[in-house]
Amino acid sequence: MRNHTDSGQRNSPLALLTELAVEGASSFIESQRIFLQLAQRENDLLLNGVKERLGASTPASAITDLVRRSLDTLIETQQEFLTLTSKQTVHLLDAVQSGKNYQSAELVDLAREGMDKVVQAHKKLLEVLTEETIKATSGKPQRVRVAKKTEAAKLAREATELFIDAQKKVLDVIQQQMNTNLTAATRAIETLSPTRLVG
Questions:
Q1: For residues 107-140, b (16+ Cβ closer than 10 Å) or e, as one string?
Q2: 165 within 8 A of 157, measured Cβ to Cβ
Q3: Helices within the chain (DSSP H only)
Q4: Which tens digit of pLDDT belongs to each residue from 1-44?
Q5: At what angle do helices 58-98 and 104-137 cross, to 10 degrees?
């Protein structure tokens, strides 16, 4: 059971603002993840449709694979940056909430980690470009799966379903954020209530 001072600290303006900031940052990052997942799924859908229509054309197939892998690498990198941003935000807000200064050593470590992610992403992208360029220019026929071409109406329906699913997830994130905001507002009002100030 919390004592009165713990409850007072929990309802202090700094604690309330920190909680709102953490939840707001988390909601923003989660929304970005949802949209990145949507982009990845939509790209897969589109590129599968393009590849089905190109048939066994080696250069065209290689270019499609290059685009797919490049986009996948970009999206994966963005996901990693969201994770890093989330980590940095939590560190900063924890430091603010505890009353500590944000240590420069921690900032340097986070900057180093961010730069490592950039270097890894560039290396991966260069590897993808090299592999797909070799595949496209080798002249060797690639094994291409012959699949039934998906109808444009079906592709459009799947794309719409993906978009609606992403919107539902974003609405869930918004609902969670609103609940946090209402809870914080209620706690703030309780903290400032006249009966509590008098007693």
A1: eeebeeebeeeeeebeebeeebeeebeebbeeee
A2: no
A3: 4-10, 13-54, 58-98, 104-137, 152-191, 194-198
A4: 334 445 556 667 777 777 787 788 888 888 888 888 888 888 88
A5: 170
